[in-house]
Amino acid sequence: MERVALLRTSGRRLLQRCGRPRPLVPAASSSAPRRRLTSSSSAASSCSSSSRGGSSCLLAAAAPLHLHAAGRYWPLTAPGFARRLSVPAVSTSPSPVPSDTDDVHEYAAKLGFEKVSEQVIDECKSAAVLYKHKKTGAEVMSVANDDENKVFGIVFRTPPKNSTGIPHILEHSVLCGSRKYPLKEPFVELLKGSLHTFLNAFTYPDRTCYPVASTNTKDFYNLVDVYLDAVFFPKCVEDFQTFQQEGWHYELNSPEEEISYKGVVFNEMKGVYSQPDNIMGRVSQQALSPDNTYGVDSGGDPNDIPKLTFEEFKGVPQ
């Protein structure tokens, strides 16, 4: 837990520092998920820009008990929604960062990060720098450009072993309150009351992504803080009711009716499995990769979701 808190604090400070403008430095070249309800229909993005001309993004992928990461760039085209910040979801002020004249690599080193690589991406007129946290192994990718939209994304490796939908249920559940923001659904409060241009979460067959974006600097760091606290310190691992709400539970409205299964993810996946094209895509993928994570459904099969227990669910984030 101490390592997680250290990574959260260090990553957030580096994100703030990377948001300051700096010159492009040439370097050697290198080489449809499920989503939560959102007010934007655009694609997910994982790089962010500062209103002063810089941009940055933090991407981390994690296996159980081990933090590792990979970063990538996605273009963002999302409409903005100008609303007043919701009071319950406002974070504390960001920690002070060095002046623009300070070297970002030296500041990263002070936070425990080392530079792995640096490259100019001509296609999007950006400078990308990859850092690695020495103590945890998590990686941070900064993509700096002159776009006014600031975007952040954190990504965890979540390869499932079965089709009970653990990654999908966890994606929903971690945004239902955290240690610092003990609300019922901070995600909904942010949708209603923040200045976000993008706010969502995605479950892929092998990873889970949590992206946010805003053109307002203060709002951007508030969104980052809420999301980081949600993924590192979720309340759902101690709350059986959240598991029942987002995953599955029994429901009986009257003695004359039969007991049925209900739940946010369960109902969502029932809808997915009612569409022939979705079934064809899943069956084809599982037939091509029967012996690995792509041979099961990370979103959850309605026939298998009720097999998931709370004990199994709460052990995944740890």
TrEMBL record:
Q: Which domain of life is it from?
A: Eukaryota
- An annotated GO cellular component: chloroplast
One GO BP annotation of this record: protein processing
The protein's matches in SUPFAM superfamilies, at most eight in alphabetical order, are given as:
LuxS/MPP-like metallohydrolase
| InterPro entries noted in UniProt | Metalloenz_LuxS/M16 (IPR011249), Pept_M16_N (IPR011765)
Q: Which GO terms describe its molecular function?
A: metal ion binding; metalloendopeptidase activity
Biased composition range(s): Low complexity = 21-51
Q: Where is this region: Disordered?
A: 18-51
The name on file for this protein is Peptidase M16 N-terminal domain-containing protein
Task: Give the originating organism.
Answer: Triticum turgidum subsp. durum (Durum wheat)
